[in-house]
Amino acid sequence: MGKYIIAGNWKMNKTPAEAKELIEAIAPLVKDATCDVIVGVPFVDLPVALEATRGTNIGVAAQNCHWEKSGAFTGEISADMLQAMGVGYVILGHSERRTYFGDTDVTVAKRTRAALDAGLTVILCVGEYLEQREQGITSEVVDMQVKVALGGVSREELSRIIIAYEPVWAIGTGRTATDLQANEVCAHIRGTLASLYDDEAAKAVTIQYGGSMNAGNAESLLAQPDVDGGLIGGASLKPADFATIVAAAK
C-alpha cells in the first residue's frame, strides 16, 4: 500500500510567531517518525514554517492554490508562487473550501492541474455529506470527486497525489467514521484508482483518513489495511496529540 503520511491541517489558526512555536514543539517529538510528516499552515505562516522545519523531517503544505499562474484574482495565491517559496505540498478540495468558498469538482481539478504543473504534491480531499451517506450514495459521490480531479493526470503524476478521505459529517464534529467505514471507503477509492490506472499504481497511492482522527482513535484507524495515514485537524494543533498520531502510523 501507499507509504504512511500524517499531515496536519491547521486551518485558520496560528499567527507566524505562534506557528514557529508550535513547529518547534512538534519537531523533537516526531524526529524519529517512520512515516512522512507534514504541516499544512495558513499562507501568512509559510515563510516561518519553511524556516522552522529546515533540517527536520517535517514537510510544509499550503492550504489552497489558484489554477491560474497570475492575473486579476485578488486575494489568491498561485501554485508557482508556492513552488518559488519552497513549499512542497498543497491541500486541495477540502470540504470547507467546497462548502464555504464555492469550490466544485471542476475547480478542484483545475487547481490540481496547476499544482502538478508547478511541481507540487497534492493532498486531494474527497468525502460525502451526511445526507449523501444516509442516501447510500457515498461511493458515487467519492467516485465523481476522484475521477474529475484526476482527469488528465498521468500515471507518473499520480505519484504526486495523496488522497484524503474526509467524510464531511465527521470534520470538526467529534463524530468519526468507524474503523470499518473508513477502510471501506479508502478501499473503494483504491479500486477507483485501479480502474483509472492499474492495480500497481493504485496500491502506491497514499490514501489518508481525515475526520476527527485524534490521539485516542488513531491507532485503530491506522491499523486498517487501506488507511495509509491521516489528515489531522484539531489534534494537529496539540504537539503531544499530533506526535501520538504520528507514532501510530507504522
Summarize the structure.
The chain is α/β, with parallel strands linked by helices. The chain contains eleven helices and eight strands. The protein has one domain: Alpha-Beta Barrel (TIM Barrel), CATH 3.20.20.70.
Notes on the protein architecture:
- The structure is a single chain.
- The chain is an alpha/beta fold and 250 residues long.
- It has a single domain (5-248), classed as Aldolase class I (TIM Barrel).
- It is built from eleven helices and eight strands.
- The chain has helices at 16-30, 46-52, 79-85, 95-100, 105-117, 130-134, 138-149, 179-196, 199-204, 218-222, 239-248, and strands at 5-9, 36-40, 58-62, 89-92, 121-126, 161-165, 207-209, 229-232.
- The protein has an eight-stranded parallel beta sheet.
- It is globular, with a radius of gyration of 17 Å.
- The model has no long low-confidence stretch (mean pLDDT 96).
